[in-house]
Design goal:
This protein is an alpha+beta fold and 221 residues long. The protein starts with a strand and ends with a helix. 43% of the residues lie in helices and 20% in strands.
Length: 221
């Protein structure tokens, strides 16, 4: 196989290339083909796989380690995001933001349930430390399995809102969740978001950011 080298019974892909080029080629040639049938596209510049999945945009982002150096370190940190284009369009129409997507869920890949930690150290895959074919195998399993399962939990606005309310965390998202309900003409779910936020406000002893409370007060009018 082109670009494949053996070292102490470990196999290394594109070992002679610089870390940036090496990472892009590994993701493009060994990972992307496994995600095509799931509807993902690959942005080589941003090292991001993305797709439109029901009501949301799904992204798998790879951050290069700032310590990458020649053949000593060639590491990437995967994370995921679920974002709403409809909510961003709503905010742009009302001149409250110019962003193209609004984040609603996601985080570091290792926090995804059932993420396989093999060949994965401190949130990074390092192609200088482990057999590259094994890394690719584990990564492809994680992306097409646990990560895709995570994405599939959130197909609609009601999935997102229900999960956040049941989880009882991330109250800072309350204005966005309410607005998601509003643009879907769901007053009942909107009231649930307000109730969820008010319950948190009444029991917390940490204080509520003034701007957050001001935004929620607007939505109660």
């Amino acid at each position: 196989m082109f670009g494949l080298f053996r070292n102490s019974k470990r196999e290394f892909i594109f070992e002679k290339l610089s870390p940036s080029i090496r990472i892009e080629k590994i993701l493009s040639e060994f990972v992307f083909p496994e995600l095509v049938d799931l509807g993902f596209k690959f942005n080589k510049k941003d090292l991001t796989f993305s797709r439109t999945h029901y009501e949301f945009e799904n992204s798998i982002i790879f951050q290069k380690s700032k310590w990458n150096n020649g053949s000593d370190i060639c590491a990437i940190k995967p994370s995921i995001a679920i974002q709403s284009k409809a909510l961003a369009d709503f905010y742009r129409k009302n001149k409250t933001t110019n962003t193209k997507l609004i984040g609603l869920a996601g985080g570091n890949a290792e926090d995804i349930p059932n993420w396989n930690q093999e060949c994965f150290d401190d949130g990074y895959y390092d192609f200088t430390q482990y057999d590259n074919l094994q890394i690719v195998k584990n990564l492809n399993h994680n992306l097409s399995g646990p990560v895709n399962d995570y994405f599939d939990q959130y197909k609609t606005y009601s999935d997102i809102v229900t999960h956040k309310i049941q989880k009882k965390t991330e109250y800072y998202l309350a204005p966005r969740l309410y607005d998601l309900c509003a643009i879907n003409n769901d007053a009942l779910f909107g009231k649930k978001v307000i109730g969820w936020y008010d319950e948190f406000k009444n029991r917390t002893d940490k204080g509520i950011p003034e701007e957050l409370d001001k935004e929620m007060m607007k939505r109660k009018l």
